Predict the 3D structure of the following.
Amino acid sequence: MQKQLWERYKGRLYHDAELDLAVDTSRINFGDGFLNEMEPRLQKAYAEMEKLEAGAEANPDEGRMVGHYWLRAPELAPSPDMSEEIKATLSSVKAFAGSVHAGNIIAPDGNRFTRLLVVGIGGSALGPQFVADALGSHLDRMKISFFDNTDPDGMDKVMGELGKELKRTLVVVISKSGGTKETRNGMLEASRVFADAGLNFAAHAVAVTGSGSDLDRTASHEGWLATFPMWDWVGGRTSVTSAVGLLPAALQGIDIDRLLEGARLCDRATRSKVTRENPAALLALSWFHATGGKGEKDMVILPYKDRLLLFSRYLQQLIMESLGKELDLSGNKVLQGITVYGNKGATDQHAYVQQLREGVHNFFATFIEVLKDREKPSMQVEPGATSGDYLSGFFQGTRAALYEKGRESLTITVNEVSPLTVGALIALYERAVGLYASLVNINAYHQPGVEAGKKAAGTVLKLQGEILGMLRKQPNREFTAEDLAMTLARPDEAETVFLVLRHLAANPDHGVGVAKGERLWENRFRALKG
């Protein structure tokens, strides 16, 4: 058995010598017949990807191209103007970061900026966070923090940590439209904290946004330090190699040229139409086989490196937002998608490997192995073994233990976590997502479900306005949720009214009080005087 596995490993192993990146599909149980069967679909996927990179409309919802590949190869952009704009933006990002580091762009008090606050949501935060955590160190030029939600307590926590460093904090606000509520709220909250501290927020602020957006107009009107472009042909979940990810990384002190080089080299490798020589195609094929092409099993990401802890969170958005679709390209209801979750090795040994090995068989694993332990030599924690040796042993043992129980897995190996390899991993999964989407006949580049959620949230907030208006109109009356729903002529929305009222009463901001009822839903709410 072991000899057969070794022969299959040698026959299945992909290795890119320039990137020193390997992809091992030997623990995915497909044979050569499967590859031959899938080849026509893959050739179709390659052709579709070629059209995408040539500038074909990829997002019919918004009538736009999808061109994140051009960000690391501007010469491939469909027009000379676009190529020059990409190059100019990269130059501007590096020049701005260099000026901040050199002290040519400084805080109003005359001191250098030493802290960085990034305000974003979704891809505008997950990509920069992953890169920052993977490549940051105590030697960073600027220490980085994030607002990545509209949670007031979370924002208070970040601002509390900044403390006296607020006056030396540069704020990068990222929103393509400028109207994304979570990002707008974070910007307003940050601005208020700066104002309360007697600081001019505009003198600390930088925008990354679409031309002519609400945020672009705000930055121009208030005189922010700089504005960098977000193009409509770059989706949020594939924006990390645009100014969205490059500006925070450059300010942090990360080598963004090497990050882009890693992505460019991986893009080149994943353009191959020879399937066995295309690592993204091998990933997409493995996903298809492991999930039956219908998302029947979850994808568990297990990086054996602390620096890659956030990779699973990053991939959750990239994969689930891209592949989670109700309809295919023909309009058929297909309910596609692959659920992604993960933890880091060897932490997972003490978390959920027990279930992975012996519990419900509803997943396949992806191990990410990093060969280099650390920059300096390691001590021996026992004769002949270092801490890194143990980490490698735990990876190999877990991989073997899962396979013994018929649990399939992929392994991606890189030599070290560096800007080059992080860029390569980002590009590898971007391409794999695109190829897999073609295999299952869906559009990876729109997200109607996300937009539906945003619209639903707007409906709730509109109802909240009506609730507050009625409470203030009748300040001497106490309402149960059902009473208020009936009064508002919304009898079918009593549950939503109740949830809104509970939140309002738990916070002093809107002046809503509550009298406890015998049962929770019988609580009575009123407008407080004052």
About this structure: The chain has a mean pLDDT of 94.
